[in-house]
Protein: NAD(P)-dependent oxidoreductase
Amino acid sequence: MRILLAGGTGVIGSRILPELVAAGHEVVATTRREDRLALLESLGACGVLLDVHDAERVAATLTEAAPDLLLHQLTDLSGNDWEANARVRREGTANLVAGATAAGVDRMIVQSITWVFPDGDTPATEDDPIVPGTAVGVMEGLARRLPRSTVLRYGMLYGPGTWYAPGGRIAVAVSAGQMQANPAITSFVHVDDVVAATVQSLDWPDGIYHVVDDEPAPATEWLPVYAAGIGAPAPQPVPLPEGAPVGRAVSNAKARAAGWTPAHPSWRTGFPRPRG
Structure:
């Protein structure tokens, strides 16, 4: 299969790329930084410089690449600028879909997230409605304009290269005592399991899939375990402010039924372990 990987140098894209090449796929991978083109080439791809907000260049890239599949792994989180990331989801995805349509590319797989549901007492499935009016909802809706689309809603990523790795943004905050053990629920997933699910999804039926581990948990449970694993002070449990969202657990039953089995079924065994 010929694949255009939009976002080939990110935490996920850079790990997916060699797996796709090893599986025999021909990959054209994009980056917005010229100094990362060599990395893409070293991983086995044809590297292309691309700013997803340049609609004309996006369309030209898709026409030139003529892929069988557009794999959308673009984010913009390096500067902790949430609006920049939302813009990628709204405007960048719109450009990708428009370019794919013009180039006759009829299939897209897109990275999404699972913390998009209103509070609820039961694990959310792919059939449950998400919070309306978000950039995530816009992105997913745009992807569904193509004849074939798969939305992979990843849980909170942890593992090498993520914010939860030693020295990462969350690790630093927890070590400084800046995070609170409150009842808000998180569904985690190890980055290696995300890579495996994404590669496997090339053979799944089109649709939405939740890629999370088996144990959604409140911060009162997972944060003390994580803090101990990185040698940080034990966080104190605190209540959420009145009216603050608690979040909702997310089910991975559909992805499991499609054949995905996480190597790290729980953050309890995937998080760093205390030394000694």
User: Anything to note?
Assistant: The chain has a mean pLDDT of 96. The first strand starts at residue 2 and ends at 6.
